[in-house]
Structures are given as C-alpha cells and as structure tokens.
Design a protein that fits this description.
Structural class of chain A: alpha/beta
Oligomer: heterodimer
Number of domains of chain B: 2
Helix content of chain A: 25-40%
CATH superfamily of the largest domain in chain B: Dihydrodipicolinate Reductase, domain 2
Number of helices of chain A: 11
Largest sheet of chain A: 8 strands, mixed
Largest interface: A-B, 55 and 54 residues
Radius of gyration of chain B: 27 Å
Largest sheet of chain B: 8 strands, mixed
Radius of gyration of chain A: 25 Å
Shape of chain A: elongated
Distance between the termini of chain B: 80 Å
Strand content of chain B: 15-25%
Order of helices and strands of chain A: HEEHEEEHEHEHEHHEHEEEEEEEHHH
Number of helices of chain B: 15
Strand order of the largest sheet of chain A: 10-11-12-9-13-14-15-16
Helix content of chain B: 25-40%
Number of domains of chain A: 2
CATH topology of the largest domain in chain B: Dihydrodipicolinate Reductase, domain 2
CATH architecture of the largest domain in chain B: 2-Layer Sandwich
Number of strands of chain B: 18
Structural class of chain B: alpha/beta
CATH class of the largest domain in chain B: Alpha Beta
Strand content of chain A: 25-35%
Amino acid sequence: MPLLPVARSVPEIEGQLGRLWAKAEAARARTEAALAAAGEPSDAGGNHVAARTSVLNLVVLAGDEPTAERCAETIAATAHRHPSRSLILSAVDPDGPAGFEARIEGFSLAAAGGRGTAGAETIRIAARGETGMHLASIIVPLLVHDLPVALWWPMDPAFGSHRAERLLPIADRLIVDGSAWSGSGLDILAQMARAAEERRLVVADWALLRQARWREAVASVYDLPDLRPHLGAVRRIEVEYATDRPGDPAGDTNVVRPLYHVAWLASRLGMTVVSPLRREDDGRRVATLRQAGHDVEVILRPAVSDLGPGSTVGVEIASRLRGAELIGRVSAGDRSVEVSILDNGRERVRRSYLGPRLTDVDLLGRAVEEGAPDPVAVQALAAAYRLLGVDWGSHKGTDRHRRDYD
Amino acid sequence: MSPGRAPAPPPAETARQLREATAARRRTQPDSDVNPLRAGLRLERVPDPCAFVLFGATGDLAHRKVVPAIYQLWRTNLLPPEFSLVAVARRPYTNESFAAEVRASVEKYSRVQPIDETAWAELAKRIVYHQVDFGDDAGFDRLGEKLDELDTKRGTAGNRLFYLATHPSQVTEIVRQMGRVGLDHELRGGGWRRLVVEKPFGRDFESARHLNHEVNKVFRESQVYRIDHYLGKETVRNLLVFRFGNGIFEPVWNRSYVDHVQITVAESIGVEARGAFYEETGASRDILQNHLLQLMTLVAMEPPSSFGADALRDQKLGVLRAVAAPTPDDVRRNVVRGQYGPGWVEGEPALGYRGEPDVDPESETETYVAGKFEIDDWRWSGVPFYLRAGKRLPKRATEIAIQFKDVPLRLFRESAGDPAPNVLAMRIQPDEGIMLRFAAKVPGLGLDVRTVNMDFAYGTSFVVDSPDAYETLILDALLGDASLFMRADEVEAAWSVVTPIINAWAEMPAPHFPSYAAGSWGPEAADELPERDGRRWRRI
C-alpha cells in the first residue's frame, strides 16, 4: 500500500489509520464483487468482517534514522508472521523546535495458503526538540487496545534515562541485543538486571536467542543415557570467543554471548556463584561456580578469529565422575554445529548438526512470538546477572517474580 | 567404615534437614531419564538410538510418505545420530542402489526443496537394505541377525520400530514371522520394540478383530501403533487445543446449545491409480470408518483427565460406544451412498468411476457416503451428527461445523432477513482456520440485521511450516507417545458402527449407480438427509 501523507498529530495518525483499512476493505469488496459477477467462486457464504489478527504492539526506540530504516525493513519482513502495529521512533534535531512527523504504511499480506489477508501497519515517528523526551505521550494513545507491548531497543539501552523511565512501564517485554552493546556489554547487562528486577520486565535478548543452535548441540552431548550422570559432575566450562586483537588487551570485546553460554549451563545444572566474573591480566575472564559440593571453573577466553568480535568460537564442558573424565566440545560454522565427545581422552562421538545462524528477521520473530516468558531464558538471564555479581533476587520484585527467576 | 569412602551424612530429622537433603540429592543425581539441558528446546526428549525397520520399503507409501518424512526429521536434527533405516522388501537391491532410488523419491515428494546434500549424505550412510520374501523363515532369521549387528556397529541399542508399509494382506504373516524370530521381545536393560500398522485395520468388525488378535498374539497392545495419518494433521491436533485450551466454548459444547454438527471430507480427485484398491474399499471403509468417525470423536469426546495416550483414547472410545449400531432400517433411512458418473471438476472433464482404470464397468462400490448419526450420551443426546465424504466433489475441503440453536425469540422483525443461526466452522484442509458466523446490524437508520462471517485463518497468524502428518506421527512413535494412534478397541468400536451399514447394503437391491455427476456435491438423496430434519448441508 502507498505511503500516506505525513501526519503531525495523534488524531491525524488515527484518522489516517482508519482510512487506510477502510480503503483496503473497499478494495477487497470490489474484488469479491468482480469475482461474483464473473461467476468465479468467492470465499464461503456471508459477508466478511475484515479480520486483522493483530497480535501485538511493537514499539521501536531506534534512536537515529539509519537504525529506524534497518528496523523498518526487519519488521516488514516479520509482519507476515506477526501481524502487528509497529511504532518506530527516532529523535532528530534535539535542539530544534518541538514537534514530530509520522509516516504510516500499511501492509496487506496474503495469508499462508493464499486465503485471506492479514493486516499490519508501521508508523514511523521522527520527534524533534523536546518532543523527543516525551515519546511515551505519543505512543500510548496509538497502542492497539488490550494487546501486549514489546519495546525493541536495538541500540545501547540507557536504562537510567528519563526516556527509559517513561517507556519501560508501558512495555510487557523488552527486546534487546546484548551482543551489539558497546564495550564488553557487561555494564549494560548489569543495568538491565536492575531494571528488569525493579520493573518486572520480561527480557528477550537476541544474544541469548542466537544461542539456540548451540544449546541443541550442547544438550545432545548428554542425550546418551550413560553420559547423562556427568551433568552432575561438571568441573570446567570454557568458552572461547572471537576478538580482533590477541588477548583482547582493552577488554572491550563484547562478551555477553560467551557469558550467556555459562549462565544457561549454570541455571540448568543447579550451579551457584562462588566468585563472580573478573578479568585476568592475560585477558581471560574467570569465575567460580559450585555444583553439588564441588567447584566449577569458568573461563571466557579471547581468541583471534575471523568471526565477528564477541562471537562464540567454541564451548567446552569438562566433567569428572568416578575417575572418568568427559569433555564435550561444540564449535559452529555458518550452517552447522560440530560436536565431539572425548571419553577419557578417546574420541567417542563426533557429529555435525545442521543449524544455520539466525537472521534479524528470525530473531525478531522469536523475540515476539512467545506469549509467556520463557522460563529457561528467564533463569539463564538471572544466572548471568549473578555471574556479574548483581545481588539478584534481593530487590523489590514480587514473590511471584522471584519464583519465576529462581 | 570401608577405607576411602566418605562418611555417610547424618540422617535428616527436621523438616529443614529433609528439604536440604532432598535438594542436595536432586543436585547431585540428575534424573537419568531426563536431560536437563533439553528444557525449552524444540524437543524436551529426543528419540532413543534405534533402527527404523521399514517393511514394504519399495512400495508407494514408503516412497511418497514414509521416507520423505524420515528425511525431513533427519534434516531438522530430530533423529538421533545412532539411527538406522533398515529397508525390507522382496526386490533385490544393495544398500547403495536402494538409497539412490529413495533419494529420487525424496527429491520428488519432500515438502522442503531442494534436498540438503549434507543431510542426505549422512542419512544415506544409515540406510541398510534387506531383501526378504515375507514367507521366508531364513530371511527373517537373517533380519534378526542384521539388527543385532546394527546394535553393535551403529549403536542402535536394541531399540526397533517396525513400520509395516505393506499391503494389508501381508500384515499377519510379517507379524507371525517377527514373533517366530523374537523381534517383538523387549530387553530388560532397555531396548524397546514397537510396531506401526497402517490403515485399513481390517475390512469389517470380524476381520479387524481377527487382525488385532493376530497382532496381539505377538506384540502387546502397548507396543502397537495403528496409524491414521489424519490424526497427525496439524489442524486435527489443533482441534484438541481449540476445545480444551479455550474456556469459552466448553459451556456451549452440548445439546443445550448445539443444534447439529456437520463433518465433511470432500475430495475433488477421483481414484487415480488406485482403482483396484478402491473397488475393495469404497468410501465407507476408506473414509467413514476412520477419518470421519475419528473427527467425530474429537468433536464429541468428554475432556480427558490428561493428554496421556490412554486418557485421550478412552474418551474417544466412549463416543464410539455411544453410537448405536444402525439397523437395516436405520441404514435405509439415515445413510446414503453414491457413485460419481462423468462430469467436470475444476474446469477439466472427469471420467465416471466405472470408466476409471482397474474398475469394474458394473461396479457397485460407493464413492460417496453420507449419514446421520446420533451419540446417545448426556452431552449429545438428540443432536444429529451429519457426516459426508466423497470423491470427485467440486472441491477439496475437510470441515467440521457446529451449528448452534437459533435465538429463542426474533426481536428484529423489521429486518429484511432473519439472521442465520451461529455457526462455528473449523476447516481442517485446505486453508486451515476457524470461522464464526454471527449476526450484525447493517449500518444505517433502520434495524437491518445481516449475517457476517468472522474468519480466522491460521496462515494469518502463523506462517511457520506445519510438519507433515507422517513426520508428526513417526516422531511420536519413536518417542513412544501413542496419543494420536488408534487402539484396538477403538478400531473395533468404529467397525461396529460401519459394519452394519456395509452388511445392510449387501442385503439391498443393486444401487442405481452412477448417482451423481463428477463435480457436484453428491447424490440428491444425500441432500434429503438434513432436509428431512429442516436443515441443509453447508455450502462449502
């Protein structure tokens, strides 16, 4: 559908949205009438309600125009899967006069199977001057009633900012990408922990979602029943991550993804934090966990690699049970994941699993499609916060909230 | 205290000690049946290492459905690496030549194209061909030895799923041979044995009972998985979610609110190359006994106490047992059969059934069946279920429609037309979805009421590819989940409804076939079924 004229107020936006779908319905009705006149079969009897199966409100805090453009493209590709109202916000000319401009675009999407259409709309709002500080006042009246609100913050989220204070309360779910955060990403992760606990936010972090193929592969090591008892006897978890300088001397390679590997394992295997993550002189980050009376050594090791900085190069889990040592190693390429198992130094299994990297469209789809918080992700995030030394669970969250995370 | 052993902890006495001791035990000894790392992944359990033994591996069903489904499961990493596909059939092949032949079928029939070369190469390595004549004792002995070898060489761990994709007449012989060799014997230290049998499960009540008896002489009922692929379809499974995952429908899902139910399984195709098969089967055996009655059980069943296989199947069985076996008079009055003559379907001329290849030119086989059935229980007493299925109908459509009772009083007398009663229609295929028909006021000063359809298509909310029914069911069988498979008593109960119909027809004079033109909605007599009760078939 064509772009509509620029709107400069909420009533103008609402008016344009109404006209947009009225036109779409009129066009559909004309097509139906033409088919009927030609004796062609139409949809089953009766008049149709133009059913727009909206499933959520997606609010994007894009920050700048290039990011807004990129997000709009991702949303357009996802709209087929998750019919939504999307509001993409960017702040331009912060010192200019207050005001905003909104452009509305509707998508009438052919449904799978070729029957019917699904409607979705994107409203791009560029706020100027002081209006950029009051985005919530524009967003709230434009939300579709009674649908969940997902807030996608693709850049570094400023959790303590005025903008966050206004926007986080309206969100049911926060979508971030921890692997794109600046520096090591750990400071922002710690801030997110506090915000999530205070506001009982459900967080969908692409950095964690990206690891689905890794988790499948790591889990497969212990699908063999005789190896499963080793899950209670883990002694070392080592994650090698990509950096562009030997030893990551400035410590500014993003390590959110490597940390999440450890956090996921710790949360699934009932490990507690003995000493939180710290950086060693040689660039490694280390921590100590405890599992069933023994310590588990955690190492995040930088390695020069062609992969993007912060990408996981490999995960190794070592366990010792009744004198037998087991090492499970997982590494990944673009399309597959390799698993090998060393049983007392002897290679017992080597497997390759197909598992392509997820695209932004996949990630956004996954981030919004779950109706309820994924308990595994929730617990993995809680473990990550504790690995950072955040006193997680002591804050003013409710009992139910604490239960979800524990 | 023996040297080197840690001192035993003091026995837990207080509630706190007991809780801490339990928690410590849980931490140190993960349940060996459960892999905690699988929580939240696509499968919380993965199939055990196993050999998938496919009888009839060179046949049409194996090539069109079973092997493509296995490939798809393999491609998506849902099968364990310690997996072998043991193809069993009479024709001579090597492992390699058979793998090459099924590869062509996968290229043709797989729902995901193109073929993933890496995945196929890995699966092909796991294909083993075994030539056997089903009456040949020595061949079955060798099969047993080969499976034992695979346990050692390929790590299949004694787990075997036997899939009979053969002609129904061969089932009892194959099962007898398996029993003779002991292939049904489950091992104490692990090593399950399961048998998957394809429909038809007999030709009538007696033959079904005989078949069940023969199968159960060798395999325990809990080892037997009777597959009706309809039950693996995504939207059929969704029916259960729709009924039992939504609180708003259950209160009106009964005789107090429902006027009647219609279930339609319409096909636009004819018998294609299956003339000989269809001559022996007909619509009653092919569709009514299984697909239609299964859909009816899912609509009419009481809520099960759990989603466990037996809890679900007990409730379905309850529905079938509440359908009275029709008398010959009931059949005359409430069941209609038909056969298509020449006509036009989807813009193409179509042969009549009697002109199809391998069909008797004087055939009396029905290609259409419609019936009115009643379920005599507290929930449904007095609510007719109209069921119909046919070939060469105007379109392919499977639908369940619940028509609710009319409003007790018409308030809008000035309206030009009476609002039609509410209908909730669930489309199974194609274009899976749910439609609710209700009355709405026409905008304007008057009080005109018009019926509108609110249409929900699954495709508008979910475009994730649905798995093929065979993928779902094969994976379930590998995981040991029999919920979507039919139990022996269920099969027999369904036959006890359909057999009297077939027997009554055999006693009647020859039918006047053909009785409907290809491309029409069936014989006129079928229209009279609901019309006698003041109702009519839905226009689909």
